[in-house]
Amino acid sequence: MDRRAFLSTAAIGLAASAASAPISARAQPTAPPPGWRRFEIVTRVTLPDPGLAHLWLPLAQSAGGYQAAQELRWQATGQARVVRDAHYGADILKLAWEGQSTTPKTVELVQTVAACDRAGGNTLLPVTAAERRFWSEPTESVPTDGIVRETALRIIGDRTDPKAKLRALYDWVVDNTSRNPDTPGCGLGDIRAMLESGNLSGKCADINGLMTGLARAAGFPARDVYGIRVAASRHYRTMGASGNISRAQHCRSEVYLDGEGWFPMDPADVRKVILDHRLALGSPEINALRDLLFGGWEMNWLGYNSATDIILPEAGERQKPNFAFLMYPCAFTSAGQPDCLNPPLFQYEITSREVTA
User: Fold this and answer.
1) Band of the pLDDT at 27, cuts 50, 70, 90?
2) Reported pTM
3) CB 23 within 8 A of CB 340
């Protein structure tokens, strides 16, 4: 766990509890430092199935220098406790309702998170050799051999400066991908299939997943960060969300650069703005946004985790989430797995508001 501790949520003092009343698992939030903003995110879920049910809800992480998970509390009719993904250290609220019951299966989860915008790398926390290896390893969704490595090396060419290599990869992703509004959810993130088919369209898990995979194949530690938009954007309307954010999930990419630390990027949002605002790839507006999102994140968004190809804690062999990541609620009931991309049918709602007091 030590190699991933810098990414995981702040230590939680409450290991388990019956959730019949509100529970606080983190200290009450204090006023954020100057330049930081604080958000309250509320997730409400109702599972109508009368049989047994299990539910996993992603929790906001604390990540060095730009995001701090402050207060966590919930109220539920079932048993609830915080569990941790053994491989990545992602914190998750796990709920269980055992046996037949006419009692409604409900939970209200409230998270308070403070965040500040990112500009450039983050050198606050050193990265060990073990962490470098961990975030450079291939996974099922992020392979680093074959066509992925061949593409990365072709893009880099004879460049030797690490940041120039990374910029070449980033620009290639921006130039060659496209956003497909018909892609379900945030996409599948199957980057090998994208490159082999030549179809480089999709959404954030596809486009930023490609960025992460190419960076790893080029020798950089890299990871996706799965999260959700929580406030309006200062830049473009479609880069933000507030109020009901049940469909506002978004993942981003960051790459470790020596001397700069974890370096944030978001080529997927460049392609989103191109599509949604009907701007040309080479327009002044897009050129400025391309530069902004190479090394910058507007923190009107919060990150949950970087658990790609996640195995749900305390899940059965057949209980796999709809996607290879956990940024949506995930449930299993006696009737099967509710569709996480359909909040009204699943019966969940996520809302956000900025806390100013």
Assistant:
1) low
2) 0.90
3) no
